[in-house]
Amino acid sequence: MGNCFSCFKIPPPSAPPPDASLEKDKEEGGLPASAAPTELGPPLTVGEPTANGTGRGPAAPSPAAAAGATVAAAAAPTAAAAPAVANANAAVAASAEAPATPRPRVFYPRLVRDPPPSEAKICALFEAYRDSAEDAMLADGIERLCADLGLSPDEFKVLVLAWRLDAARMCRFSREEFVGGLRALRVDSIRSLQSRLPELAAETARDPDLFKDLYRFTFRFGLDADAGQRALPADMAACLWRLVFSVREPPILGRWLRFLEGHPHVRGIPRDTWNMFLNFAEAVGDDLSSYDDTEAWPSLFDDFVEFENDKANQNIAKDREGAFKETD
C-alpha cells in the first residue's frame, strides 16, 4: 500500500432511480423531466436545520474522511516533536564539534609495602654479634651492635629496641628474641634497623598506651632473673627512671630521685611502686598540691610528699626570718 491513500477512497454512491410520481407531476405542470433543478444548495453540516426549519440530523462522515482524520491525528505528535528532536540533534552536533575540555589529572599515592625481611640476612646479622661461647648476644656483642647503629647503650632507642625484641633481661639478646623481633619489625640489616628505630621511639613517646607498656617492661627488664630479684635496687631504679623518662620527663622526677638518694634506707623499689609512680607523676603535677593522702598510694609516696612539704615550709620560715632581720 506504501504511502498512497488511494486504498482508502470509496466510490461515490450511484444516483437513486427517479421517482415516477415526481416525473408525472412535472409533466402535468408543464415542465419537462429534463428541466429538474441541477443545484441542490450547499451541503448541510452536522445538526444544521433545513430551510423549512427541520433538521436532517448529524451527518456521518464518509469512510475516507474518517481515515484521513485518523492518519492526521497519528501524525500530529510526531510533527509536534520534530522541533525538539531537531534541537537535540543540533546540541549533540555542537558538543561534538566543540573542543573537549581537558580533565585534570589526579595522582593517587601508591601504597608501597616493605618487602618481607630475609630470614638468612637476619640470621647472618645475629651471627655477626653472637657470643662465641653462647648462642646469644651478650654485653660485648650488644655494645658493638649499638656502635654500628650509631647509638649509645644507655639511649632511649636502645631501650625501645629491647622492648620490641621482648628481651627477658638486660645485656642479653637470645637468638629467638633477636630473629623474631627483627622479623616482626620487617628489618634485616643495620641500615634498615637504623632507619626504623627513630620512628619507633617517636611513636612510643607520643602514644600514652605504648609508653605505658614500655614503662612496665622496663621494670622486668631491669631485674636480675638469675638472682631471683623481685624488687629493683634503688640505684638501678633511679637509672632506669632517668632512661625511660628521657623523652617525656615529668616535673617531679628530679625531686623524686633526689629524695631517694637522700634516704639510703630505701633499698628497693617493688613492682607496685614502680607501676604507680607513672600515675602519681601525672596526678600531682609540679607543686604536689593535688596530692590526696587518703587515696591508696604506696607509703613511700606519702613520705616523699611529707618531706617536700616540710622542706617548703622550712624555706618559707627562713624567708620570713630573713625578712624580719632586714626590717630590724
TrEMBL record:
Keywords: Ubl conjugation pathway. The keyword Iron does not apply. Pfam families: Cullin_binding (PF03556). The keyword DNA repair does not apply. Residues 1-64 are annotated as: Disordered. One of its GO terms (cellular component) is plasma membrane. Residues 117-309 form the DCUN1 domain. One of its GO terms (molecular function) is cullin family protein binding. One of its GO terms (biological process) is positive regulation of protein neddylation. Residues 10-19 have a biased composition (Pro residues). PANTHER family: DCN1-LIKE PROTEIN 3, RP42 RELATED. Promotes neddylation of cullin components of SCF-type E3 ubiquitin ligase complexes and thus regulates SCF-type complex activity. Function promotes cell proliferation. Neddylation of cullins play an essential role in the regulation of SCF-type complexes activity. This is Defective in cullin neddylation protein.
